[in-house]
Specification:
Structural class: alpha/beta
Largest sheet: 8 strands, parallel
Number of helices: 11
Pfam families: Aldo_ket_red
Distance between the termini: 41 Å
Order of helices and strands: EEEHEHEEEHEHEHEHEHHEHHH
CATH architecture: Alpha-Beta Barrel
GO molecular function, one term: oxidoreductase activity
CATH superfamily: NADP-dependent oxidoreductase domain
Keywords: Oxidoreductase
CATH topology: TIM Barrel
Strand order of the largest sheet: 3-4-5-8-9-10-11-12
Protein name: Aryl-alcohol dehydrogenase-like predicted oxidoreductase
């Protein structure tokens, strides 16, 4: 399998002027949702990511809650590493509970931003996202609050997550949006219809979360797979035994190309996504150095036109079974 490390991680530019490593690091799983956490191991992953040239870390105040930002804050303090941090606000959780609400108000935004700055130990957040859109509140009001934070020097760039094309255009008219973060992978391609075209029309970068289908596209989770306590994938429709059995056909297509190339299915999935446009930056998450190194090496893989055509034609005939979130989770997307 192809595990050779890159000599240098390539760079991509989000929006007009925000350069980041071509592959970022999603840090959510270091705190929750994917089984038990291990801070020492996570710190080692963060250190290794910097060694590999990954300088774009993604977090949020609700991961933990707060634990993930605190973890990254400790890493920044101990290492002195020069990395770019993207964090988010807008999902309100109580400690120890998953139940949540959405708040995009200026007052809450400012309180959340101050908290993130303190936990991260930084004077300015490089990219500040609205984690989920509060449908009842005009996006113009939210953008005005974010513009004020930027003018004060508390944030450098503004981003939106899981936003509709219509809302994105309204937001961008108030203040330039640097990046949109939405799920995008071989088994989640909704963004290709409206969101990606709108981003390109407006000059906005695109950050793809869950680019490996929450691990499913790696081939490690087939029908009947078991999950550790605290792993929320056990409750996701696409991972149910029947749906996983159906979706396994997609993994086999990816595995076939990977085997022929001498790389891993994860690397093929990431290489496919990177080839969809230089304005796309995937942020695969992991808390294991082995998978971090595998993901980083994908930046050096170039799929041939024939491989891409084979992959596109094969997946076009395969329906993905199951929604990507539960019914409650789907309420927050495309707002």
């Amino acid at each position: 399998m192809q595990q050779r490390m890159l000599e240098q991680m390539p760079e991509r530019v989000l929006g007009a002027d925000f350069p980041v490593s071509a592959i970022g690091l999603g840090c959510m799983g270091m705190s929750e949702f994917y089984g038990p956490r291990d801070d020492a191991e996570s710190m080692a992953v963060l250190r290794r990511a910097v060694d590999l040239g990954i300088d774009f870390f993604d977090t949020a105040d609700m991961y933990g809650p707060h634990h993930n930002e605190e973890l990254i804050g400790r890493f920044l303090k101990d290492s002195g590493a020069r990395v770019k941090i993207a964090t988010k606000f807008g999902i309100v959780r109580k400690p120890g509970e998953y139940a949540r609400s959405i708040d995009n108000s200026a007052d809450y935004m400012r309180w959340a931003c101050e908290g993130s700055l303190k936990r991260l130990g930084v004077e300015r957040i490089d990219l500040y996202y609205v984690h989920r859109i509060e449908r009842e509140r005009p996006i113009e009001e939210t953008m005005q609050g974010l513009a004020a934070l930027k003018q004060e020097g508390k944030i450098a760039h503004i981003g939106l997550c899981e936003v509709s094309a219509e809302t994105l255009r309204r937001a961008h008219a108030v203040h330039p949006v640097t990046a949109v973060q939405t799920e995008y992978s071989l088994w989640t391609r909704d963004v290709e219809a409206e969101i990606l075209p709108a981003c390109r029309e407006l000059g906005i970068g695109f950050v793809a979360y869950s680019p490996l289908g929450r691990g499913f596209l790696t081939g490690r989770f087939q029908a009947g797979a078991s999950f550790e306590d605290g792993d929320f994938r056990a409750s996701l429709p696409r991972f149910s035994p029947d749906n996983a059995a159906t979706n396994g056909a997609l993994v086999e297509v990816v595995r076939g190309i990977a085997d022929a190339r001498g790389c891993t299915p994860a690397q093929v999935a990431l290489a496919w996504l990177l080839a969809k446009g230089n304005d796309i930056v995937p942020i695969p998450g992991t808390k294991r150095i082995k998978y971090l190194e595998e993901n980083a090496a994908a930046a050096g893989i170039r799929l041939s036109d024939e491989e891409r055509t084979t992959l596109e034609h094969a997946i076009a005939g395969l329906a993905v079974a199951g929604e990507r979130y539960t019914a409650e989770g789907m309420k927050g997307v495309n707002a």
